[in-house]
Amino acid sequence: MKKADVLVIGGSAAGPVAGISCRRKYGNKSVILVRKEEQVLIPCGIPYVFGTVGSPERNLIPDALIQNNGIELVKGEAVEIDRKKKAVSLSNGDTVSYDKLVLATGSSPLVLPIPGIEKEKVFIVRKDVAYLKNMLDVLNDAKDIVIIGGGFIGVEFADECKKGRDCSVTIVELLPHCLQLALDEEFCTEAEKVLSDRGIELLVNSKVEAILGDNQVSGVRLAGGQELKADMVVVGVGVVPNNELAKKAGLEIGPGKAIAVDRYMCTTTDPDVFACGDCAEKVSFFSGKPSRLMLASIACAEAHIAGANLFHTRYKNPGAVGVFSTIIGERAFACAGLTERAARQEGYDVVLSESTAPDTHPGGMPGSVSTKVKLLFSKDNGELLGGGISGGKSTGEIANIISACIQSKMTAYDVSLFQMGTHPALTASPIVYQLVNAAELAIKAM
Ligand SMILES: Cc1cc2nc3c(=O)[nH]c(=O)nc-3n(C[C@H](O)[C@H](O)[C@H](O)COP(=O)(O)OP(=O)(O)OC[C@H]3O[C@@H](n4cnc5c(N)ncnc54)[C@H](O)[C@@H]3O)c2cc1C
Predict the structure, then answer these.
(1) Nearest to 136 by CA among 52, 51, 41
(2) Residue whose CA is closest, atom 29 of ligand 1?
(3) Most informative mutation of 7, 8, 9, 12 for ligand 1 (most atoms within 8 A of CB)
(4) Quick one: how many helices (H) and strands (E) in the chain?
(5) Distance from residue 13's CA to the centre of ligand 1 (Å)
(6) Do residues 344 and 350 make contact, with C-beta atoms less than 8 angstroms apart?
(7) What DSSP letter does each residue of 77-134 carry, written as one string?
(8) Residue 189: which region, alpha, beta or left (left: phi > 0; alpha: psi -120 to 50)?
(9) Cβ of 241: how many Cβ atoms within 10 Å?
(10) CA–CA distance, 215 with 344 (Å, rounded to integer)
(11) Which residue among 64, 70, 301, 365 sits deepest, i.e. has the most Cβ atoms within 10 Å of its Cβ?
C-alpha cells in the first residue's frame, strides 16, 4: 500500500493544479496524483489536433509539470474509495491511503440516444490519444463530414477539418444559431458568416434523427426527412460529469449530476474529501444558483481553491463567471460573464453599449483588426454583468479583462476610469479604447 498526505484523482486540468496548489501552500505535505491515461491531452487543444497542431502527441500536458512540483505520479485507474479506511483502490490491485482526497475526475462526452450512433466512423470527441489518432486517420480519408452540434467544440472542429483538406463539412445545430449558448445573437451571426465564407455548410434549427449506414456510417437523416451524405460523423453536444466513483463512495451528488461541494470546494458529505473541475457542482457568480458551465478556466480556479483549503480554509469560491473564447479562421469571438439573453433571463434590467476600434493605432498598421466590444451593465447598480467581443487575437485577453472587472464588481463609472496601457502595435488607441468608450456610452444611457 502507498501512503500520501494528499491523494488527487485526475490528471488533466484540475488535478495537477490542485496538487500544485497544495504543494505551494503546504510544502511539507506529500502528494500523489493518480490518473488513468498513459499520456494526457490538453483538452482545449483537441480540435486543433485535426489541423493546426497536426497530431495528439503534439497536444499533451507534460508529466514534468507534476513531477517538477514534487508530486508523485501514479498511472492507474481509481476504482473504489473506502472513506472509513481513507484509502483508494486502483484497478491493478494497489491501494493508496490518504489524509485528504481531491476528486478531479472530470467529464465525458454526452452520447446522444440517436439510432445508429454506435456505427463505425461516428466519433464523440473523447479525451483519449489512441481514439483521436484513429479519428485523425478517418478524417484524412473522409470526403463528407457531418458535425452534430454547433457549440464551440463543433465549430472549432469544423474549422480545423477545412485546414489543408478538400472535404465538405456540414454542421447540424438544433438551436437557431451556432454558438448561441455562449454568445449574443449578433456575434453568432458574424461567426456564422465566417464559417460560411470558409466553405462550411450550416443547418440550424435542425435535428439529426438517425445515423444511416450498415456497420459504417453513410449519412444522417434530419427530423424533416432530409438526408445528408457522410463518411464521418462527429458529435459535439456537451459533456456529463464523471460522478460514478463519488457516487459509489456515498458522496452527495448535486442537481447537475456532479459532486456536491461547498464554497470551499469541500464535498458536502466528507470534510476530508474535496472536488474540483468538471466533476464538481458549480454555482453562478451572479445568482448563486446552480450553473452548468464546464470550462478549463473554471476547473483550474476551483483546483487552486481546493488545493489551498485542504488543511486550512483560505479561499472562498465566488462562483463561475464563465469566460469563453474561440477563433474561426482569422476572426476571434469571446464573451465574459452574462450574455444579454442570459442577463434578461436572470431578470436584470440591462444597459447595453458598444464600441468598435482597430486593435492598433493608427488603424492602418499591418495586421490591424477592427475589434468590437459590447458591454452589459445592471441598470439598478451600474455593475458590469458581461461583455462580448469580436476581433483579432487580442479578443481572448479583452474577455479576461472584462472578467476581472466583473469579479471586482466594477460599475460603468469604474470601467470608464480604467487606466489601460496602450501601444501603437499592441492595443487600440487610448482615445478610442473600446472598454472605456463603451462604459462612457453606457453611463450616458443610464
Ligand atoms: C474538445 C474540447 C475543447 C475544449 N475547449 C475549451 C476551451 O477552449 N476553453 C476552456 O476553458 N475549456 C474548454 N473545454 C472544457 C475543458 O476541457 C474542461 O472544462 C476541462 O478539461 C475540465 O478539466 P477537469 O480536470 O475537471 O476534467 P477532465 O479534463 O475531464 O480530466 C479528468 C481527469 O481525470 C481522470 N480520471 C477520471 N476518472 C478517473 C479514475 N477513476 N481514475 C484515475 N483517473 C481518472 C481522467 O482520465 C482525466 O485525466 C474543452 C473541452 C473539450 C472536450
Answers:
(1) 51
(2) 12
(3) 12
(4) 11, 24
(5) 6
(6) yes
(7) -EEEEETTTTEEEETTS-EEEEEEEEE---EEE-----TTTTSBTEE---S-HHHHHH
(8) alpha
(9) 25
(10) 47
(11) 301
| Cβ atoms of residues 18 and 28 within 8 Å | no
CB contact at 8 A, 8 and 31? yes
The reply to whether ligand 1 has any atom less than 6 angstroms from the CB of 155 is no
Which pTM value belongs to this model? 0.97
Instruction: Give the residue, by CA position, lying nearest to ligand 1 atom 49.
Output: 11
Cell of 237: 453536444
Contact status, residue 430 vs residue 420, Cβ threshold 8 Å: yes
Q: Whose CA is nearest to atom 24 of ligand 1?
A: 106
Per the DSSP assignment, residues forming a β-bridge with 300 are none
Return d(Cα 189, Cα 384) in angstroms, integer: 24
User: Any idea which residue has 478524417 for its cell?
Assistant: 139
Q: What percent of the chain lies above the pLDDT cut of 70?
A: 100
